[in-house]
Specification:
By secondary structure, the protein is of the alpha+beta class. It is 25% helix and 39% strand. The protein has one domain: Alpha-D-Glucose-1,6-Bisphosphate, Chain A, domain 4 (2-Layer Sandwich). A 7-stranded antiparallel beta sheet has the order 1-7-6-5-4-3-2, with helices on one face. The longest helix has 27 residues.
Length: 145
């Protein structure tokens, strides 16, 4: 059995906290930066689906602290054994945190893979690099409007 793997990224988009929160807390906006398509209502206990890199994933939202934090589990639609499977690290918990430090507001993303193979961890890490690059570009576009 592999140990959990935690992937942490932080990005400062130069956006006010309320605009950054809007990108995180509005499931409809996830398709602007996080996934290809999203049908998620971001509130505790809600379930939804996303399409991530062509793969359908289920989402279960655990925690929402307005203006601060969103936490959810997600897993592949075809995960063997359903949502409790660890399936090579495919089930994971994701947390978005708004980090304020004086004038600076950043987004910290933490994904914890329940049981991860080295390959699953490397793939998840690379996907966050790409997602946050897309978010950076979306943030730059917002800042110009």
């Amino acid at each position: 059995m592999n140990s959990p793997v935690r992937i942490i990224r932080e990005i400062d988009l130069g956006l006010p906290a309320d605009e950054l929160w809007s990108l995180v807390a509005d499931g409809d906006r996830w398709s602007e930066w996080l996934v290809d398509d999203a049908a998620v209502v971001v509130r505790p206990g809600s379930d939804g689906t996303v399409v991530d890199d062509g793969e359908r994933r289920h989402v279960h939202v655990h925690t929402v602290r307005h203006g601060e934090r969103v936490a959810f589990d997600w897993w592949r639609d075809d995960a063997v054994g359903g949502p409790t499977t660890v399936d090579g690290g495919e089930r994971s918990r994701v947390e978005f945190e708004i980090v304020r430090d004086g004038e600076r507001t950043a987004l910290r993303v933490t994904e914890t893979l329940v049981e991860a193979t080295d390959l699953a961890a490397a793939r998840a890490s690379a996907r966050w690099d790409v997602r946050l690059l897309v978010m950076h570009l979306a943030g730059a576009a917002l800042a110009r409007t």
